[in-house]
């Protein structure tokens, strides 16, 4: 018994000593990439490097699967258990900032002046989050198909017009070689819808909400431009150019590679895999439906929780993680667009002349953020349903009217989502 | 007089305590919370204070009205007709978005019937909820009798002393043991509109005459497909309850019936069926309650689409509470569902009471 006491005492003494010697403060961090080995290895590498680079802070990581990540953060926030550092999907940031989960980054904005606009999470004039990468969507096509169908290759300066795009759809369908002309990924009924399809609506001249004050969608989501978008959107499915909402999810991953579709509206995260299997794949810019060619911007970003007592340490980590070498490492491993031009030059795919360099241009030139308002989380769901219903054949005007009513009622119920 | 529940029964209470605590914490308390939330504007996350709003949530869900539209007339007063000779009516939005009718603002068409040059349109404040309510009731009405019937048939089939009968029992019971999420995913492949198993099978059986149907992508077939799959999935569970009921019937009754010269049908009608009375009540109530809770199949297979043809009440409650962050709206649906299920259960109890 005495012996045991002695050992325990020694143990306590030893632990006491060690913590006194290092005096590191622990910072907790949450990340959405559980289950993804490559991503985990990268983020762990950054954390190890940071912990070794200084002696004040020690970052401890907890990873969550992406599907339940937002729920976990919400639950933790309600219970008052948020970590110091957390990552978040760009468009949800305003909601969390408004709800008081986040604090503005205590970092000089000049630090990030070279970053792509889509990587900066700015709400209410303050920088709340910063991303190591952005994502972009492009029209996947095969060079051989383009030649066979006699189509002009669109460029950033001169994208396809609506007529050219529809002519391409028609030609692809009539060639009889494909199940459908284009795969739009309609089975992915989630954030993919506003991310991938809202830019079409914007290109028609409509939008999800009036962005001057974010108080109403009336006249924007059900105006003439939006109705024109709805008619066009419905025609894509009615004419059999694209598989509808019951598309097999696997076909969005592999359908284009397997030659089921002539085109695919797909993200750059599938580009590396597609290049490996389709030699003459090309990544074309979005068509211009009259109001410019745009794509969605804003991917996962890092921020600091409002409850954190060590914002300075968290800021140190974020500064450390946003070094060019890490931006490049992430890009090389999972094909994302590095946030800075200098980092892009260090990567395989995005350096000048690299196979994916076009995405860097797309993101820089065309990326338009989804509405930056706390109400976006609801508006996104309303848009998903409206776009799916119209694709399924619902009356365009009635569906968009209903969507407007739902968005406006939600804004009213939340007292206009005013910041406190 | 002190009942045995309160006197010298500490051990009993101690054993019951964990269960009672859990039921209270996870069923009774949330129910009262839901009722409370349904009278407020409670959000999932919001810095704004929650306000009491009275019955507004119930009005937003249950609001119904009928408007009558007159057919469009041209300058000469003749009714305008479309290509098939049917009268043309002005759009419903000419009423619901008209500042002259503020009471209809935000309502949408649910369904309509036409008589002569007038169209009567039922408009609802929340069409999605109305469709969910209708679909859920339809689901229960079809699933309850069919599932109970099939389960009884299977139970009669496997209630025999044959070699290897346990294999059949195991096979019929298997879908119950597999997670409903997995089953739903598998059936999504089976129902695939392009090269799903069901389409391929029907094509093979009809020597290629059958044209593939997009089972889950077509508003006319989606709910039916989910109903068929749901009946198949849980039929084994109720089969076991029936089987338990069958095995409590004394063999002497069957012997007596045989001696009396009863036919197979008479034996079933006058021996088996009366003996299954308690099992029947149990099966009916359990199926009804499970059917009203329809959620997972919808969430995995269709997400309420296409065109709201597979919306269900529980799916809508979750969708609103978490998707649209409207806890108050989700709670309101839960309370309405509770009232419906309670009413039906009480009705079933009364109808099947011992007379």
TrEMBL record, chain A:
Q: Which UniProt keywords apply?
A: Signal, Transport
Recorded hits in Pfam families, A to Z, give: SBP_bac_8
GO terms for MF = maltose binding
SUPFAM superfamilies, A to Z: Periplasmic binding protein-like II (SSF53850)
Give the superkingdom in one word.
Bacteria
Q: Which InterPro entries match?
A: SBP
The record's GO CC annotations read: ATP-binding cassette (ABC) transporter complex, substrate-binding subunit-containing
- CDD domains according to UniProt: PBP2_TMBP_like
Q: Name one GO biological process term.
A: maltodextrin transmembrane transport
Show which residues constitute the signal peptide.
1-23
Q: Is Transport among this UniProt entry's keywords?
A: yes
Please name the PANTHER family in this protein's record: MALTOSE-BINDING PERIPLASMIC PROTEIN, MALTOSE_MALTODEXTRIN-BINDING PERIPLASMIC PROTEIN
Regarding protein family, the annotation reads: Belongs to the bacterial solute-binding protein 1 family.
Q: Kindly provide the name given to this protein in its UniProt entry.
A: Extracellular solute-binding protein
| Organism phylogeny | Bacteria, Pseudomonadati, Pseudomonadota, Alphaproteobacteria, Rhodobacterales
TrEMBL record, chain B:
Under the heading CDD domains, the entry gives: TM_PBP2
Task: Give yes or no: UniProt keyword DNA-binding.
Answer: no
Q: Where would you find the membrane-spanning parts of this chain?
A: 12-37, 132-158, 170-191, 222-244, 279-298, 327-347
Bilayer disposition of the protein:
Multi-pass membrane protein
Its annotated compartments are:
Cell membrane
Recite the UniProt keywords alphabetically: Cell membrane, Membrane, Transmembrane, Transmembrane helix, Transport
Gene3D superfamilies, alphabetically?
MetI-like
Any single Gene Ontology cellular-component annotation: plasma membrane
GO BP field: transmembrane transport
UniProt domain ABC transmembrane type-1: residue ranges = 133-348
- What family is it from? Belongs to the binding-protein-dependent transport system permease family.
Classification via PANTHER family: ABC TRANSPORTER PERMEASE PROTEIN (PTHR30193), LACTOSE TRANSPORT SYSTEM PERMEASE PROTEIN LACF (PTHR30193:SF44)
Q: What is this protein called?
A: Binding-protein-dependent transporter inner membrane component
**Which organism's genome codes for this protein?**
Thioclava atlantica
């Amino acid at each position: 018994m005495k012996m045991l006491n002695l050992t325990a005492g020694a143990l306590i003494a030893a632990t006491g000593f060690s913590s006194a010697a290092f005096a590191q403060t622990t910072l907790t961090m949450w990340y959405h990439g559980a289950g993804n080995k490559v991503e985990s290895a990268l983020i762990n590498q950054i954390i190890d490097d940071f912990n070794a680079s200084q002696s004040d802070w020690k970052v401890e990581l907890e990873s969550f699967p992406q599907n339940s990540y937002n729920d976990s953060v919400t639950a933790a926030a309600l219970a008052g258990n948020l970590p110091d550092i957390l990552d978040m999907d760009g468009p949800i940031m305003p909601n969390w900032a408004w709800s008081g989960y986040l604090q503005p980054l205590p970092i000089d904005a000049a630090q990030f002046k070279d970053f792509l606009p889509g990587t900066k999470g700015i709400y209410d004039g303050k920088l709340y989050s910063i991303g190591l990468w952005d994502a972009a969507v492009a029209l996947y096509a095969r060079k051989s198909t383009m030649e066979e169908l006699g189509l002009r290759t669109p460029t950033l300066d001169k994208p396809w017009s609506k007529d050219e795009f529809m002519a391409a759809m028609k030609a692809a369908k009539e060639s009889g070689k494909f199940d459908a002309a284009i795969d739009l990924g309609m089975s992915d009924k989630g954030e993919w819808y506003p991310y991938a399809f809202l830019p079409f609506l914007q290109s028609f001249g409509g939008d999800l909400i009036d962005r001057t004050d974010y108080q109403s969608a009336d006249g924007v989501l059900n105006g003439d431009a939006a109705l024109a978008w709805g008619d066009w959107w419905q025609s894509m499915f009615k004419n059999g150019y694209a598989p509808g909402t019951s598309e097999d999810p696997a076909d969005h991953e592999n359908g284009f590679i397997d030659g089921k579709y002539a085109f695919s509206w797909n993200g750059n995260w599938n580009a590396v895999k597609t290049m490996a299997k389709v030699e003459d794949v090309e990544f074309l810019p979005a068509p211009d439906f009259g109001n410019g060619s745009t794509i969605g911007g804003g991917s996962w970003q890092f921020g600091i929780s409002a409850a954190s007592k060590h914002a300075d340490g968290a800021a140190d980590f974020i500064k450390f993680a946003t070094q060019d070498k890490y931006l490049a490492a992430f890009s090389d491993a999972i094909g994302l667009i590095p946030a800075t031009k200098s980092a892009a030059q260090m990567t395989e795919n995005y350096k000048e002349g690299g196979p994916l360099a076009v995405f860097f241009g797309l993101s820089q030139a065309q990326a338009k953020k989804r509405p930056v308002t706390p109400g976006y989380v609801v508006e996104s769901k309303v848009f998903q349903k409206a776009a799916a219903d119209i694709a399924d054949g619902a009356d365009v005007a009635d569906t968009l009217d209903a969507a407007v009513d739902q968005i406006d009622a939600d804004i009213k119920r939340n007292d206009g989502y005013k910041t406190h | 007089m002190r009942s045995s529940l309160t006197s010298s029964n500490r051990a009993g209470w101690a054993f019951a305590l964990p269960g009672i605590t859990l039921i209270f914490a996870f069923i009774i308390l949330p129910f009262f919370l839901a009722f409370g939330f349904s009278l407020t504007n409670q959000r999932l996350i919001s810095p704004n204070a929650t306000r009491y709003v009275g019955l507004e949530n119930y009005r937003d869900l249950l609001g119904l009205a009928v408007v009558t539209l007159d057919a469009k007339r041209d300058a000469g007063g003749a009714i305008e007709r479309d290509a098939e000779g049917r009268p043309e009516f002005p759009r419903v939005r000419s009423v619901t978005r008209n500042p002259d009718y503020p009471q209809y603002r935000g309502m949408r068409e649910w369904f309509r019937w036409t008589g002569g040059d007038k169209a009567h349109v039922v408009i609802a404040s929340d069409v999605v909820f109305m469709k969910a309510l209708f679909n859920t009731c339809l689901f229960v009405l079809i699933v309850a009798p069919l599932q109970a019937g099939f389960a009884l048939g299977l139970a009669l089939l496997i209630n025999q002393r044959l070699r290897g009968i346990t294999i059949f029992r195991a096979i019929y019971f298997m879908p119950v043991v597999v997670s409903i999420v997995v089953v739903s995913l598998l059936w999504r492949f089976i129902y695939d509109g392009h090269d799903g198993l069901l389409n391929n099978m029907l094509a093979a059986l009809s020597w290629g005459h059958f044209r593939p149907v997009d089972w889950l992508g077509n508003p006319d077939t989606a709910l039916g497909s989910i109903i068929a799959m749901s009946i198949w999935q849980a039929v084994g569970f109720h089969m076991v309850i029936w089987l338990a009921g069958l095995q409590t019937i004394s063999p002497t009754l069957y012997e007596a019936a045989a001696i009396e010269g009863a036919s197979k049908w008479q034996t079933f009608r006058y021996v088996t069926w009366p003996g299954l009375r308690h099992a029947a009540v149990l099966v009916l109530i359990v199926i009804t309650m499970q059917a009203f809770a329809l959620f997972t199949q919808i969430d995995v297979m269709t997400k309420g689409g296409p065109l709201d043809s597979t919306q269900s009440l529980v799916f809508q409650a979750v969708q609103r509470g978490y998707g649209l962050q409207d806890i108050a709206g989700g709670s309101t649906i839960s309370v309405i569902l509770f009232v419906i299920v309670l009413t039906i259960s009480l009705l079933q109890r009364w109808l099947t009471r011992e007379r």
